[in-house]
Write a structure and sequence with these properties.
Layout: H1 3-43, H2 47-52, H3 58-70, E1 102-103, E2 111-112, E3 118-119, H4 121-136, E4 142-145, H5 150-164, H6 166-172, E5 186-189, H7 200-208, E6 214-218, H8 223-226, E7 231-237, H9 240-249, H10 254-266
Parallel strand pairs: 2-4
Antiparallel strand pairs: 1-3, 4-5, 5-7, 6-7
Helix pairs in contact: 3-9, 5-6
Length: 273
């Protein structure tokens, strides 16, 4: 190699080294920014939520989080996010109706015990997949409630107020605009009472629903956090990535995960990362 070529090679090596160092520096800055944002988000969460988080690698947590955020692309952009925070303090408008609701019809895979049931396509497909596997294992699931309009929920809440009184109704029924059912991603299995947890279907769903993207919304001993008493029959579809994320990092408590994602996004979140 002549002197000129040696010089050019040396210059190229220096340039490549500079580029690599620059990339490493940029990646390090991005990593630090994400970890700072993570700390900021957790600082605004409840103490019980933070206690549920296992001691793990922040980078692993952030990697899993990004998979969940990416999974939103699997849902229709015409409708609200599958991670939309809806509870006693956060609501949707009276006019919100999911765009592409799919009617649930009589079929051999799962049962329905009411007319006019419907779900968003993503939830319907996941229900069918889950029920199909349950049936293979000798368990037949029956669905009792799915999407509810604002007006339907209003009438239902008022009914329970008349039956049980306001205080008790607040523990078991959502005010209009605050029900997960209005998102078109939640369902109630039958029977809609505590006995569901003792049935073969209830036991199977409790152990397996997460594998198909379904998440128990109101678990035992979390009424202070969710606003509702234990409802073993009520599940919300969040997608497989999120259901796994919830189990791995949030003590399998849906409310904690949804609140975290909501706060993460508010803290300027991944748009600027």
């Amino acid at each position: 190699m002549n002197r000129k070529n040696k010089l050019l090679t040396a210059i190229l090596v220096i340039l490549l080294s500079s580029v690599l160092l620059s990339c490493e520096k940029k990646q390090e800055n991005n990593d630090n920014k994400e970890i700072l944002l993570l700390k900021k988000t957790f600082a605004s969460m409840s103490e019980k939520c933070v206690e549920a988080i296992p001691n793990g690698d922040p980078k692993e947590f952030l990697s899993d989080l990004q998979k969940v955020l990416d999974s939103e692309k699997e849902f229709s952009s015409e409708d609200l996010s599958p991670f939309f925070l809806i509870d006693k303090k956060h609501s949707v408008s009276s006019s919100y109706i999911p765009k592409n609701l799919v009617p649930l019809k009589e079929n051999s895979t799962f049962g329905i015990n009411k007319n006019n049931l419907s779900l968003r396509p993503e939830a319907y497909n996941a229900l069918f997949e889950m029920a199909e596997e349950a049936k293979k294992q000798g368990v037949f699931l029956t669905v009792s409630s799915t999407y509810r309009s604002y007006s339907y929920q209003e009438n239902l809440f008022n009914y329970w107020v008349k039956v049980d009184g306001l205080e008790e109704a607040e523990r078991e029924s959502a005010r209009p605009g605050t029900s997960q059912h209005q998102l078109g991603l939640a369902l109630d299995f039958a029977p809609v009472d505590d006995d569901f947890a003792l049935t073969e279907g209830g036991k199977w769903v409790y152990e397996n629903a997460w594998k198909y993207g379904w998440s128990l919304s109101f678990p035992k001993n979390y009424e202070a956090e969710t606003g509702y008493r234990w409802e073993s029959w009520h599940f919300r579809y969040v997608g497989k990535q999120a259901a796994l994320f919830q189990r791995k990092w949030f003590g399998d408590v849906q409310q904690f995960m949804i609140e975290f994602i909501d706060q993460w996004k508010k803290n300027s979140a991944y748009k600027d990362l």
